[in-house]
Design brief:
The structure holds 2 protein chains of 2 kinds. Chain A is mostly helical. Chain A has one domain. Helices cover 82% and strands 0% of the residues of chain A. Chain A is rod-shaped, with a radius of gyration of 22 Å. Classes of the chains: A mainly alpha, B mainly alpha. The interface between A and B is large, with 33 and 48 residues.
Chain lengths: 111, 178
């Protein structure tokens, strides 16, 4: 083995990938949710202003759908994470994930 | 309706990017700052910034992988981290896997010492050489990806990595001769 190869082998041992702590994933999910919520609030303020003018009714309705879909996407990520954490597998996991998504979406729509 | 589909696709793509590269961003951050606490902060800030600019990055990437873009964000944030806090990078030797291996045969002990020396050597390299080695060995990035992350040509990146390894090799040789 040449000297360069030996250093490369040592570098592979020294600089091994580091697994992120599980708590970090949760923290990131929360941050993404907060971002989406802030965007949704901005959207809601804009909707209220726009709804006063009937010409804006169609675009406003479309914007609501877009905002809800965006929130739904992130909720799905969070549900998947929760599902993985609980270590549930197969169909039960799928069922659980779907229930989480549905209940989270329901909460968001009630707000 | 097209907007809805676009937004859904964008969120789905970002989720995939996040899941695929959380470990890469975390590893890079960890080896840059040398402790888990700041590496977590750096990783979080990287993904939040990426989330804000994802649509544009995806549009401009022209189908190329986005990992170099993510690492470049982490790189810029790490540079700010040092500038703001006047800190120097550290390497937390205890966390390198081989150094904490429970079984210590003679061979492992010897290798631990060598790894320790390599880590010390890496921490003393100029910033660009150290970063290139982290990307190559901790993240498994190829020259093209590293070049994109560092804003250099592929040729310049190849030379940079070669010189970094040569410098380490010389350092190890000098130590062995002491």
């Amino acid at each position: 083995m040449s000297d360069v190869e030996r250093v490369e082998r040592l570098l592979r041992s020294a600089l091994m990938p580091v697994e992120p702590p599980e708590l970090l994933s949760d923290r990131l999910e929360r941050s993404f949710s907060e971002l989406t919520e802030a965007a949704a609030e901005e959207l809601a303020d804009w909707e209220l202003a726009a709804m006063r003018d009937p010409r804006n009714w169609v675009p406003t309705a479309a914007a609501i759908v877009v905002g809800t879909a965006a929130a739904g996407g992130l909720v799905l990520v969070r549900a998947r994470q929760q599902q993985r954490k609980r270590n549930v597998t197969g169909l039960r996991a799928l069922e659980k994930g779907m229930r989480d998504v549905a209940s989270d979406l329901e909460k968001r729509l009630r707000r | 309706m097209a907007e809805v589909v676009d937004k859904q696709r964008l969120d789905r793509d970002f989720s995939e990017l996040y899941r695929a590269h959380l470990r890469d961003v975390y590893s890079y951050s960890y080896y840059r700052v040398g402790n888990h606490h700041d590496a977590e902060d750096l990783t979080e800030q990287t993904f939040l910034q990426a989330y804000r600019h994802f649509e544009r990055a995806q549009r401009e990437s022209d189908g190329r992988p986005l990992r170099p873009w993510l690492i470049r964000i982490a790189h810029n944030l790490a540079a700010n981290y040092y500038r703001d806090r006047s800190r120097k990078p550290q390497t937390n030797l205890e966390d390198a896997a081989i150094l904490s291996a429970p079984i210590a045969t003679e061979q492992v002990v010897e290798e631990r010492e060598e790894v320790k020396e390599v880590l010390e050597g890496v921490s003393k390299l100029p910033d660009d050489r150290r970063e290139a080695l982290i990307m190559r060995f901790a993240l498994g990035m190829d020259n093209r990806e590293i070049a994109r992350a560092m804003g250099r040509s592929e040729g310049a990146t190849k030379v940079l990595i070669h010189r970094a390894i040569k410098q380490l090799e010389q350092g190890l040789e000098e130590r062995a001769n002491e």
